[in-house]
Design brief:
Blueprint: H1 3-16, H2 29-40, H3 44-53, E1 59-60, H4 61-68, H5 72-84, E2 88-91, E3 97-100, H6 103-136, E4 146-150, H7 151-162, E5 168-173, H8 186-194, E6 198-203, E7 214-215, E8 222-226, E9 229-235, E10 242-248, H9 251-267
Parallel strand pairs: 5-6, 6-7
Antiparallel strand pairs: 1-3, 2-3, 4-10, 5-8, 8-9, 9-10
């Protein structure tokens, strides 16, 4: 990014930013570093380097090392981390110089990253919720919804499940399920599509099953949405020949997964 452009944008954001009266002031430099690290999700060294850069025109790695007392190699590594977070940028020149992104923009970047991280965590928590809710039901009245089955049987279970489809078949495959040969589903999916079902497949990597597949990177687990029912399946991390399958018609879980699937489908490659 051009140095003058960064400086101009910073001045503009300062004029638009919150008043000094609205700011929360930390009494000591050490206290400010800790708060910046805690609230912005930075390491201690990242916070120290970020604060050293804040308000400066531009500093080199050597200058930052001298100012912060952090070794040059670690300064460079931490600058890469700050660049990846979108709060520091490298400006034109030799040697390389670094400058902070306008604070309002930096905070916006961090909030966006934290929101994405939270969404991924929510997906995993909802999946875990379904399993744990079943386990909290007294054993004598639990519905037979969770199965411990051999990996080779998972696709057989899934094909039986797909045979019940009338309107919708949305498949989602995580790479961890790579032991499963999805190509055996090809004919089943084609027949469903010919019968008028809305057939879609998402995967977190390219999948050659002779059927159109969209790729999205953030899939938390493998599952199928068939009409108003969800079939989730997981491979055991410790025992390669075992898997777990969950079948549920929980409206809240179904609604969440269907909404997530729609969002991924729209943004997929």
């Amino acid at each position: 990014m051009n140095h003058d452009a960064v400086a101009t944008e910073r001045d503009n954001m300062k004029r638009k930013g919150p008043s000094e009266e609205a700011a929360v002031l930390i009494g000591t430099a050490d206290g400010l570093e800790k708060e910046v690290a805690r609230i912005m999700g930075l390491t201690s060294n990242e916070a120290k380097i970020y604060l050293a850069l804040l308000g400066e025109n531009a500093l080199t790695v050597s200058q930052l090392s001298k100012t912060t007392g952090i070794h040059r190699t670690r300064v460079y590594d931490n600058l890469k981390g700050l660049e990846n977070k979108g709060i520091v940028t490298c400006v034109d020149g030799e040697p390389k110089q670094f400058v902070t992104v306008p604070v309002a923009i930096a905070i916006s970047h961090l909030i966006e990253q934290m929101t994405e991280s939270l969404e991924r965590r929510k997906e995993k928590l909802y999946a875990l919720q379904c399993v744990l809710q079943r386990l909290e039901t007294p054993k004598e009245i639990r519905p037979e919804q969770v199965y411990i089955i051999m990996v080779d049987e998972i696709l057989d279970e899934l094909r039986s499940f797909l045979a019940q489809a009338k309107e919708r078949v949305w498949l989602c495959k995580k790479t961890a399920g790579g032991l499963l040969d999805w190509s055996v589903l090809r004919d089943d999916l084609r027949k469903l599509q010919q019968d008028g079902a809305d057939v879609r497949i998402l995967a977190d990597s390219k999948l050659d099953i002779g059927f159109p597949v969209r790729v999205v990177r953030s899939i938390p687990f493998s599952y199928a949405i068939v009409d108003a029912t969800v079939f989730c399946f997981f491979l055991d991390k410790n025992v390669r020949d075992l898997g777990k399958a969950l079948v549920t018609s929980n409206d809240e879980f179904l609604s969440f997964l269907a909404s997530s699937y729609q969002n991924w489908w729209m943004s997929a490659e």
